[in-house]
Design goal:
16 strands; single chain; 6-stranded parallel sheet; globular; binds 6-O-phosphono-beta-D-glucopyranose
């Protein structure tokens, strides 16, 4: 239930700076599903400057009018709330479209003309916000073209910022090369490498939970914590993205980015302030502290899987190899599980188990922190035969909340114990605000706050951890694929990984 005090927590903040946003890849899925609805939501919350304009750039032959029409057709389906027609009219007037190839210098010359026009018409103060919502092969190309055309130079207090989508590289070498290419034409402070997991309220709340409360931090270490489990389970398959996914796989797609965000926020030391670099320094230290995988570790501490046809589920789901644009003998993994160790004083000896997969039995993302059992079994002469460890579960999605499980005496004359929960659900306290998860990130970029974006060193540290796995897996192609049925909890080897340590994956409820 919302209390009066919770109202005060909903501070709206200041609107983003006046600016023109240039979206490269304006006719793609990301633009219509996430970016436009998120910008509209910001406008609705008065978090978008009134001095704002959008120029969409893409290859498709469209006029501005046609572009606006297609956005108008799509927006209701992606908004999650009724459209305010007046606001949408205001918004549409600020959108123009420019057709062209991303590698054509002429396009950038025309774009400059358009930018001068929007600056005058919408008073955008000359600030420019480029969003690269394009295939990764174009990231470097577009940045170089913008640099060559002088469109990244920050002069007279006018800012130029570039949001780069994922995937940022496909291994350490390619991520490093891309960083170098970007740094040739702009400063690190102009680069906003996005990871949409950091736009999720529940992910941002990990920091609030840990550092705005005094009671958890003293027990947040190897002395009290037995192990940590992170599960990112998806029920979807690869849908229409088989072409991309078959060259990427679950490891590249989810681990060095989204899952490493969850690990670094869970494991980092308290930053000295909430300034972008103070937070990112601590996150980076955790990634550097992950024990490097030897070839032997890859064999014993990691599991890969690929889904086959569903078995016994209500709806029949085809095997990964039968998905569109996937090779019929594909060796790409759609599931990965692993055990990591973080080599620092806080976490030495505490395993972090993680797993993620497509076509799993339920959609659930959570971090479960399992505490050590009490040191003395004082109930040994009673009917209590075992003690269930305390667990703190941070539920990221679809449930959003935090749950602490502990033992309680069940009523009656005999000493018996049951496990009970203390729960916090976001929706109960704060209601539900329609959100795409991109609002906060775009607003942060418009006010110059890079805390929730990745620095070059973080991205490279993430890739350094997973690159040895990619190398060993490539050298030893899987022989047992497909090894889990669509709609299940993944391959048996992932259960064995924990069973060898006397542990098991937390059962996901309902
Ligand atoms: C994307 C991956 O980055 O994240 C997708 O490329 C994945 O494969 C998606 O499905 C998961 O995001 P979310 O927000 O649905 O957990």
């Amino acid at each position: 239930m919302a209390t009066p005090a919770t109202q005060d927590l909903r501070q709206t903040g200041r609107p983003g700076d006046p600016c023109t946003m240039v979206i490269f890849g304006a006719t793609g899925d990301l633009t219509r599903r996430k970016l436009i609805p998120a910008l509209y939501n910001l406008a609705k919350e008065n978090l978008l400057s009134r001095e704002f304009a959008i120029i969409g750039v893409a290859r498709n032959e469209l006029t501005t009018e046609q572009f606006r029409e297609s956005l108008t057709k799509d927006i209701p389906g992606f908004l999650g709330c009724p459209l305010d027609n007046d606001l949408w009219e205001w918004f549409l007037k600020r959108i123009t479209y420019l057709q062209g190839e991303f590698n054509d210098p002429q396009v950038y010359a025309r774009l400059q003309g358009e930018l001068q026009r929007t600056e005058k018409e919408h008073m955008t103060h000359g600030n420019l916000f480029y969003y690269l919502a394009v295939a990764p092969t174009f990231f470097g190309e577009i940045a170089t073209q913008l640099g060559t055309a002088g469109m990244l130079a920050e002069e007279d207090g006018k800012w130029r910022r570039v949001i780069v989508e994922k995937p940022f590289g496909r291994d350490l070498d390619s991520a490093h090369a891309l960083n170098q290419q970007l740094r040739k034409v702009m400063g690190e402070s102009q680069i906003y490498r996005i990871d949409h997991y950091l736009g999720k309220e529940t992910v941002q709340n990990i920091m609030a939970f840990r550092f705005a409360n005094g009671i958890f931090e003293p027990i947040w270490n190897r002395r009290y914590i037995d192990h940590v489990q992170i599960t990112v389970a998806e029920t979807v398959g690869v849908e229409q993205r088989g072409g991309y996914y078959d060259t990427a796989g679950a490891l590249r797609d989810m681990v060095p980015n989204h899952i490493f965000q969850l690990i670094s926020l869970t494991a980092m030391e308290p930053p000295i302030s909430f300034q972008a670099d103070a937070v990112r320094d601590e996150q980076a230290k955790i990634l550097h502290a992950i024990q490097p995988f030897t070839a032997e570790d890859v064999l014993t501490h990691t599991v890969r899987g690929q889904y086959g046809d569903s078995v016994g589920t209500d709806t029949r789901m085809p095997a990964y190899r039968a998905e569109p644009q996937v090779l019929a003998d594909s060796a790409t993994e759609t599931y990965v599980a692993m055990k990591l160790q973080i080599d620092n004083w806080r976490w030495a000896g505490v395993p972090f188990y993680l797993r993620t997969g497509k076509r799993m039995a339920a959609r659930h993302t959570y971090i479960a922190v399992e505490f050590r059992r009490p040191p003395l079994r004082i109930f040994r002469d009673t009917a209590v035969d075992h003690l269930t460890p305390n667990t703190l579960v941070i539920q990221i999605q679809p449930e959003e909340g935090i749950k602490l499980s502990f033992a309680a005496k069940t009523p009656g004359p005999i000493m018996r114990l049951g496990t009970v929960d203390m729960k916090f659900n976001y929706a109960d306290y704060f209601g539900v605000t329609p959100s795409t998860g991109y609002e906060r990130l775009m607003h942060d970029c418009m006010i110059g706050d890079a805390t929730l974006f990745q620095r070059a060193d973080q991205v490279e540290a993430g890739w350094s951890v997973v690159t040895p796995l990619l190398d060993v897996w490539k050298a030893l192609p899987p022989r047992n694929f497909p090894n889990y049925p669509a709609g299940s909890w993944g391959p048996k080897e992932a259960d064995d990984l924990l069973a060898r340590d006397g542990r098991k994956w937390r059962a996901v409820e309902g």
